[in-house]
User: What shape does this take?
Amino acid sequence: MKFHWFHLMPYPDLPPDFREKYRSVWVDVPSHLYDPVRGHQVYNEYLDELEYADAMGFDGICVNEHHQNAYGLMPSPNLMAAALARRTRNAALVVLGNSLALYNPPTRVAEEFAMLDVISGGRLVAGFPVGTAMDTNYAYGQTPVTLRDKYFEAHDLIKKAWTEPEPFAWNGKFSQLRYVNVWPRPLQKPHPPIWIPGGSSVETWEWSIEHDYLYANLSYGGYKSAKSVMDGYWETVDKMGGEANPYRAGFLQLVAVSESDAQAEADYADAAVYFFERCLHVHRGFADAPGYRTIRSLEAGLTGTLLGQRSGRSIYQAGGGWKGYLEEGNILAGSPESVTEQLREVIKGLRIGHLMLLMQFGNMSREKAMKNTRLFAEKVMPNLRDVWSEYEDRWWIKPLDAARRAAPAVAK
Amino acid sequence: MSYETKTVSVRDGLFQVEMRRGGKGDPLVYLHGAGGQDAWDPFFDLLAERYTVYQPFSPGWRGSTGLDHLDDVHDMALFYLDLFDALGLASVNLVGHSLGGMFAAEIAAMDAAYVRKLVLCAPAGLWLDEAPVPDFYAMTQDELMAALYCVPPAIPPQDPAKATPEQRQATARAAIEQAKALAASTKFLWPIWDKGLKKRLHRIKAPTLIVWGDSDGLNPPVYGPEFQKLTPGSRLVVIPGTAHLPMAERPEEFVRVVREFLEAP
Assistant: This one.
């Protein structure tokens, strides 16, 4: 079983009346709410937390791409991964990922990911998300109805750029390049593992399975609402004759560990409320650009509720409070013993070999985030390591052995 | 009044076009807006008293196929010239609403020979920095209705628990049709609908009428004079008490204005 420490890098100082005063945390949240001096502090604290996760033995540290978003301050996750490549030794750099259709030309992704892979000694996991409607359509102006075609073409181009040893010409619908010839080449062969963060679209599942990529279900709903999604995924794997290997699937969960269940609430409840009430306050109108989802996906999942979808104030229902979040499974929290047992159920129930843990959420301080991380690493992780030991993880990094790693000139 | 629905094959079947047709007289082609055209509304009957009204669905809307073969407004304008050929229409009166108005203007600018007279109702396609077009793609349902209508039609509240399976099916079907229509429209309007029409309006030779609702909340009325300025010899008529859908809110007045223009010598 593998464990990955996932950061969103939220802005921690949104005003208490944020929900009332602003319609969305994403897309048109005014940038005057951002104080760069405070930003300097938190970027560095957040990088500390990711470095700490590496030191504490997490398998991967995860960064991700969002735009015009006050809860996700990584418009360029590659910058963060580059900083981490130099300051960490063991953890995989899981970039989840680069929204392929946003890069022009997409060979930019092939180049930057190859740089990260080479600098880190082959520790890169290359995430290829389509990206949300908020990021791709509303913030970056991509046409919803052609977004997926552009994404698929970019994917084909990047893969070919990584694997073709000679320059080639690319006459695509979205990119025309007379000379594709990416320097540097990635260190991992034939290329870094490709992971597909996605929602619940049948097409994404089929496509990931067809290409033998890892599918990662990233939502903030938690393990209860993910059950039907992951069941759908495994049904699709089965239908397509794929191996039911848990390592082909990943899942994100908010997790909060403390000395006791009561102490967990005392330590983390405020941060959780900040996360669900302020960070997830997204204008309904931005949730689903027309054409972002395929007609097939709409027909598959949403026929009953489609009409109500664009009414109401924001996408996520807030107001549950700590007990509500726990009941709904949005957060999994408690003493190390309790979290261990709950997570064992989740891992087996969803059949996932890669668990992404959101352990800093909302306005949680560095001190609390590190406490959460330490307790998990010392008292939870070791007890769950053996789950799925009978399976081989074919979706994992192949780093250089220690003897061939670059040594720093100046000792830390 | 009656109309027929038929399927027209264009470019050796590359496009299958669903089309309604009704009435008698000179040909009048009506191009719908981004939301499509749910029904043969009363204003079609009024136009059909004097014209043979053709109401095709653009590729990607309703049963019309072939959107994948169209990348931009130029492809769409060419498609419509091919459709006119397929229908044996050498020249038509062309009426377009909103996105359809943008297509109609592009068609008239592309090949003047096909268009006798041109009516543009709240056409899309221009952008003024000092009067940005609202982002209707990011509106909630309530906001959208308020932008489209002076008086939004009353939608009877539906209790999903009491709906029959057939009703639920119909509601879902309609929602998917709507999603499909708006999805197709993004190919021509996203993220800002200025696709260079201002560089082509001067090519329009047909006498042109521009119609606008005085309370249009989706396409601000300030764009009426802008279209008029850029389209040679055009006239602008503002219909009071209507928003983005004058033909639905005041059908008699809309048709009176249009017929007066079309029937003038």
Remarks:
- The interface with chain B takes residues 27, 137-138, 141-146, 283-286, 289-291, 295, 298-299, 303-304, 306-307, 310-312 of chain A (CB under 8 Å).
- Confidence is low (pLDDT under 50) at residues 303-315 of chain A.
